[in-house]
Each structure stands twice: as C-alpha cells, then as structure tokens.
Give the backbone structure.
Amino acid sequence: MKGKKEKESKRDKILNAAAEEFIEYGFYGARTQRIANKAKVNKAMLHYYFSSKENIYKEVLKTVFNLLIEKLNSIKVDDKEGRPEEKMRQIIDAYNEVFKNYSNYVRLVIYEVITGGRYIQQIIFENINRIPFNPWTGKLYKYFEKQIRKGNIRKLNIIQMLISLISQMVPVYIAKPVAENIFKKLGLDKFIIEKFINKRKEFVMDILKHGIFKKSNKRR
Amino acid sequence: MKGKKEKESKRDKILNAAAEEFIEYGFYGARTQRIANKAKVNKAMLHYYFSSKENIYKEVLKTVFNLLIEKLNSIKVDDKEGRPEEKMRQIIDAYNEVFKNYSNYVRLVIYEVITGGRYIQQIIFENINRIPFNPWTGKLYKYFEKQIRKGNIRKLNIIQMLISLISQMVPVYIAKPVAENIFKKLGLDKFIIEKFINKRKEFVMDILKHGIFKKSNKRR
DNA sequence: TTATAATTTAACCATATGGTTAAATTCAAT
DNA sequence: ATTGAATTTAACCATATGGTTAAATTATAA
C-alpha cells in the first residue's frame, strides 16, 4: 500500500493483503486465513501485529482514507493563475485521475459507507480538517467560495456543488466491470465502455461549465 | 417485500428477512441462521424453499431489481404535455422519491456492483429492455432523444447525461446515516443534514437546467 | 558467543457455518 | 376418517472461523 524503497514490511504485506480481501468480500465476509494466505504469513501473525480482524479493517480503512485524502489534497487549487474555467478543468482532471487509479480503494470506502460507516465516521471526524471540501477549512471549498465572491461562478451552495462534481465521476469506475460483462453478453465490444469512460470527465466539465459559471465566463 | 393483501407467505417472509441481512452484511457476511431467526422459521426452511444461500441472494436481488425498475418505469415521460423544463423537474422529483424511499434497496444494488456484480449483470442482461435509460428501447432515453431533436436541450450524449442525473441524487441517501453521526460528533444539529438533503433535488435541477437546456428555454 | 527480545510456528479451542436427513407434523383431497 | 403430499423440525455433519498459546526460531545488542 506504501511504495517504499525498502522491502515491504510484514505488517504492510498483511495490510495490502487485507485490503484486497476487504475490497472483495467486505468486512463481514473477509476471512483471516485467506488474508494470511494472500500475505504469505501464518494466520497468528495477523493477531501478533493487529490483535483482531476488526483492528486490521480499521487500519486498512485508515490507510486507504489517508492515501485518498493525500492524493486529493495534492491537487493545487491556488487561484492565482489560470482562468476559473481552466482551473475547474484541472480539478476535474485531477479528481478523475484519483478515482480512476484508486477505484478499488473508492470501492472499499463505498462499502464501508453502505454498511453503516461505523469505522469511517470516526476516521472522518478525526481528520475533518484535512478534507478539501469541508466547509470550514477545506481548500477546495475556499477556492469556490472565492470564485463566487469574485463573481466568476453563480451563487450556489458549494457543498451541493462539490457533491455533484464528485458523484458524477465515481460511478463509471465502480460499474465498469459490470458494464463490460453486460456488453459482452450483449455481443457488444467493450471498447465502447472504455471510450465512454474516457469521455466522462469531459461531459462532467461540460455540464458544470454550463451549470455553474456565469455567462460571461463561458466559451461556446 | 411485496405488500400483498393476504398474509405474507413464508417464502416472502424469508426473502424479506434475507434482504435485511444482505443489506447489512452483504452476501458473504450474511448468515443463514440469522436470516432464519429474522424470518422466524427453522433454518432448514431456507433450503426447502431456496436450496442455497446463493439462490436466496439471487432471488432477493431479482426482487429488489424488479421493484426498483417498476418504480422507475411508473414515471410518466410522455412528452405530450408540459414544458421540457417542467418535465425534467417531474422526472427528478420522481427519481429522487424512489431513491429516498428505497435507499436500502439501492444500497444492496450498490453492494452487488462494488463486489463484482456477478449476479446482477445477469439480471440486467435479461431485463435490459425494461430499463428506462437503455439506449435502444428505454423510454426515458427516447424522451431525451426527442427533446434534443426538437431543439429543447443541447445536443449531448444522453447516457452520460442520465448517469449525471442519477449519480447526483443517490449519494445523499446512502451517506445520510454516516453524515448524521459525524455531525453529532461535531456537536452540530443533524437537522442541517435533513434540510440539505431536502434541497438536493432542487440543486440537481438547477445544475441540469443550466447545464443541458438551451438558452431560450431557461427562466432566470 | 550469549542472553534477551522479537517474531514466527503448529497445534489447539469453542463455536459457527451452510447444508443434509429422517422423522414428525400439518395440510388438502377424497 | 384416511391417505398422500407438503411442510416443518431437530438433530446431525464436515468443515470453517477468529482467536489463543506455548514452543521454536530468528534477530539484536553487548
């Protein structure tokens, strides 16, 4: 999970193996023996390093969360340069890239949320200030706040807008395997899906361009 | 799961109990003994009616899928009446109502998709013609196709647009419990979440109004 | 090299698990 | 009331499960 230069520690091997297992089976369906097999360790090592299956899951979630937040936070939203529209494009590109490259981790976060989110809510609570779209300190939030103040985008609820931005991008990566199998069953070329997904960010940009920017900012 | 007038059959009791169990624990984490307890039947009855845990899951998924599709298909998209913008509002209202009222079933579908979708892909394949947004026979698809032809909305990819429409509405219902717990931990009133969610469809309508309708169709 | 700490192992544990089976019970038709 | 079919039950099964433990092995420091 961390691409460190030195040999992967046993603890990290376990975490990586566990992440795979939780992504595929969820917490309740994950099996400690399978995790041990994947990590090529004796099952008791899981308990030596983590004490319980639950602790492994918590640690995996924390690690996944930290990685995703780090990636999302590495996106520059400094408004000193670039037209607002161009900046929006960069944000969409960058976010899309994260969701695309880490779709398995996104999958795990979604699993956690749909099964009640008891663990991730604590993680979010403890890291609320690191989240780029939190309405108190989030740098992405502040960026859009400023654009509204400057008159570049319409006055609207920023959180609602950010939910729209993110929620339009995520599903295609999550549903891709299913869509491809269905296309296969329909005798269609799954290459169509790839093309469709590659167009997704452009479509989202198009909708948001028309949807939130003031008219004078738009290039037809 | 089916609100029939007569007393709920034992088979249906099992399906309802199983749906609850699968929603909470997923397929792999669900336990047949718990399903039996929830349904107030002896565990062997699950096998008498359904043969295996897998068959129960398939049947639950099929039933959930059928119900959701039925609800989504009951929405009139006849374009003989009402302005396109008003019609869009009705579609958003109606879809929002389905996602809100059946958020647990949506949760299960999402679970199935993120864990590989092996069962639901077959269900979708077999019912492709009933899906309102399928690009060959879907009535929602055809509706938007016509609006584009009539010049009421911009020329755009309809599937991309429908993904945008749906994907903007679903997450708030899925994340609601988690968000409420986080707000609670932050000492904030969870009533804010309820208000926020109630505004969601209006926001989605606003974005799509600006985002897809041609200029002469818009009321500022 | 030795002693200690850290890591790892193999065996174990009590219980859980999806599924099976034969007997008991209930239902429906005559 | 009787018979056969359908349903239900209690017990069972072989294996799986998360976790425990003491011994063995390895690593580290002096």
About this structure: The mean pLDDT of chain A is 91. The radius of gyration of chain A is 20 Å. The domain at 76-217 of chain A is CATH 1.10.357.10 (Tetracycline Repressor; domain 2). Chain A is about 70% helix and 0% strand.
